[in-house]
Amino acid sequence: MNLIKLIIDGREVEAPAGSTILEAADNAGIDIPRLCHDPELTNMGACRLCVVEVEGNALLPASCVTPVTEGMVVQTESAAVIEARKMILDLMIADHPMDCLTCDKMGDCKLSEYAHRYGVKDTSFDGERHNYPLDESNPFILRDLNKCILCGACVRACEEMTGADNLSYLYRGYDRKATTAGDVDYIDSDCVFCGQCVAVCPTGALMEKPLVGLARRYEVERVRTTCPFCGTGCNFDLAVKDEKVVGVLSNPDSPVNGRSLCVKGRFGWDYIYSEERLKTPLIKKNGKFEPASWEEAYDLIASKLGAIKDKHGSEAFASLSSARCTNEENYLMQKFTRAVMGTNNVDHCART
Amino acid sequence: MTNPISDITNEAELMLLIGSNPTEAHPVIGYKMRQAARNGAKLVVCDPRHIDLVDEADHWIRQNHGTDIPLINGLMHIILKEGLEDKKFVEERTENFEELKAIVENYPPEKVSEMTGVPVDDLYAVARLYATTDKAMIFYTLGITEHICGTRNVMSLANLAMLTGHLGRPGTGVCPIRGQNNVQGACDMGALPNVYSGYQAVTSDEARAKHEDAWGRPLPGNLGLKIPEMFDAAVEGKLKAMYILGENPVLSDPNANHIKAGLENLEFLVVQELFLTETAVFADVILPGSSFAEKDGTFTNTERRVQRVREAIKPLAGKADWKIICDISGLMGYPMDYDSPKEIWDEMASLSPSLAGINYARIDEKGLQWPCPTLDHPGTPFLHAGKFTRGLGLFQPSDHIPPGEMPDEDYPYLLCTGRILQHYNVTTMYSPGIMEVWNKEIAEVNPVDAEKIGLQTGSRIKVTSRRGEVETEIQVTDRVLPGVIWMSFHYPDTPTNDITSHHLDPITGTGEYKVAAVKISKL
Ligand code: SF4
Ligand code: SF4
User: Fold this and answer.
1) Does A235 contact B244 at a Cβ distance shorter than 8 Å?
2) Whole domain around residue A335: which residue ranges?
């Protein structure tokens, strides 16, 4: 690999030929702010927050789209750069609701992170503000276009990760919008509710609706686990607050899927709190199920299974294990069937 | 799968999809296929139904339902006639080539075209493309296996891959995509009537002796019953008791009425479940189970990757599923003393050579793909490199085997079933979010038939087979061929498996869910 040497913030840095300044800085542990850049998506150079100063270049180039060259000297936090970033943020919040106090994305919002970093408290522009209605059309994704900064991450995620091609930029100038084809609510669009757009949105414009009002990101414990639905084996984090699962969040370290999920994995988890979950053992008495204690249920099972084995032999018993249970549970089920009941009558619905 | 999922986007130059609808049944894999196709990989979709990936495909082979073997034989016929087979691979790594040649000789393009409904030109194009592409992967799922000839369908695909040397390298292989999250693991763990964990045969004296030693109990050496045999035995009164863990055969197995008759006939039934399912209502005792969020342990995905499942909340009904089995076992005089699922895994691994190198510490971050025989083994992303498990790859050719039941005068329509994106076999029906949007069956009917019967999108119909009847709403769409009705099997209000075929693949016992004869009447 051809390595290029350059200087970033006075440090000598090496980067493979063809990398961008932003990538070179990332590798060197130098944090350049960015809103529209996402390592899993194509580069757009839209937000310009990642501008840097390059010696010999009168303009401030966007580091996410500028390739490194030999001997390049880069400043990532010069006075001119800071000035430019403040201006960009100032313009952005000129048309952004400042309801951070109640915004569910607070604490995990890139815009607020950078506004804080550069001390942009309020806008110096006094102009028209959008007042788009919320899209609450579906149980999964809450869309507040007033908080959209037009970084286009959702548009690219929809096209490049899922290939649903459901989102694009519509209209021009002040009316420009990142929205569904025909500018309809999500539920009326061709959306497949994979939620990739939500996973990449840097602000509160797109949010997991089940989480709204329940917990902010810094309040939840994240427990990485494996999806219980299909055989792809996607990983994600369960967001847990006060001993309760409140949502599913993408985990970029997932070996199979990265941040991609489908509607089942991302939004189907709420069956765990279904009203219809069984809460206690049940024993059928005179054709009706009645709640029972664990001991009662256990005793009945042990004595019945024991008696049937004694009377009719091992082959009178069979078990069905489960393609939805863990490996460990399956192992125990076949061990129980073979070692305790004495038969190989164990199978599962291999309907794959 | 013989190859890893990452091969889709990193390696494959051609993806041949047959009887599989990944963007709905395995969405993230489907999304990766779409990415690969858009980045230049070729895509061939063989499916009678217009699935989403058809829109990304270079070729769409719309074979008639139940004609996969003639189709595949026809492709091999062309490959052999044109000398496009991988002679070196066939020579060095396979046997029984002569029989294959003799059988596919009888499948010339014109005849195959007649049997399958696929134009001759398309057969040539796809045969040449597959044979001449260096890295070509085959993917299949239930559209291949859920037929009376399911095993023969799979063998035919293996024949095609071996004939062209598309095995044992990155970006090649024959990849069944497993539908349920841990169907791979349930098999690996020996939840099967013929093997212990790691596919050690119960009929092998050596394997049995090892397990008797480890478990301290004498073990049976005869094969156990497969699911359909279990329910036959229950109906006959030979099987008296069952313990069903987290499965709902009444909803998900074919010919539900037979299953119900079997369950009814049992003397004693234990069901361990999250919900009062269609199966659980037959139980004498129900034990409340745990959801994945309440579980500690591992799942194994379709590429054989063992990954952790981590307990996010305590079991809502108070007891972990593994603990329940241990408790009952203890009461029956066989204590199972494990502190945690980790100890169960370690015991299993110590008994299973192909999994011996996997432990919780090693899989913490990225999982591991078995076979993984030792602690320093890196895992096995793709199978059959250099050698097949049995040594030489055996060609097992087959002639056409028509479905067990085809439309006739009394039952003129062909019913095909499958999965939709938003639902999974069972649990999603209890997701308030998902049910708010997708809460009823919407069968697919071709416009030609809709006009004949007088149906519009939104009409309700009764679908009747020789085994039962169900009611459903319909959608008029040319996604399905004329003469075909397509339904999912997710909704208790439309229990599609009440009417599916009673025919089985005699080798695996898998039901022929993909073809049944039905009649349709307007409601
Ligand atoms: S949820 Fe998925 S399909 Fe829908 S708009 Fe977002 S990325 Fe596109
Ligand atoms: S998130 Fe979707 S694709 Fe991924 S494992 Fe779950 S069900 Fe399958």
Assistant:
1) no
2) 313-348
Residue B241, C-beta contacts closer than 8 angstroms, at least 6 positions apart: A304, A305, A308, A316, A317, A318, B266, B267, B268, B269, B270
What letters, b where the CB count within 10 A reaches 16 and e where it falls short, cover B69-98? bbbbbbbbbbbbeeebbbeebbeebbeebe
Q: Which fold is adopted by the domain B179-223+291-375?
A: Rossmann fold (3.40.50)
This model of the complex carries an ipTM of 0.90
CA distance linking residue A285 with residue B284, whole number of Å: 8
CA distance A178 to chain B (A): 22
* Domain-ending residue, one of A36, A60, A77: A77
Q: Global pTM?
A: 0.91
Q: Which CATH number fits domain B225-289: 3.30.1330.40, 3.40.50.2300, 3.40.50.150, 3.40.50.740?
A: 3.40.50.740
The structural domain count of chain A equals 3
Assigned domain for A102 exists: no
Summarize pLDDT for B160-204 with one digit per residue, the tens.
999 999 988 889 989 888 878 898 999 999 999 999 999 999 999
Substitution site in A192, A250, A267 for ligand 1 pocket (most atoms within 8 Å of beta carbon) = A192
3-state secondary structure of B445: strand
Select from B28, B292, B426 the residue to mutate for testing ligand 2; criterion: most ligand atoms less than 8 Å from CB.
Answer: B28
Domain B413-522 class, CATH top level: mainly beta
Cβ contacts (< 8 Å) between B302 and chain A: which residues? 231-233
| Closest alpha carbon within chain A to B269 | A301
A253 to B365: CB separation less than 8 angstroms, yes or no: yes
Question: Which residues line the pocket of ligand 1, CB cutoff 6 A?
Answer: A 157-158, 162, 164, 166-167, 191-197
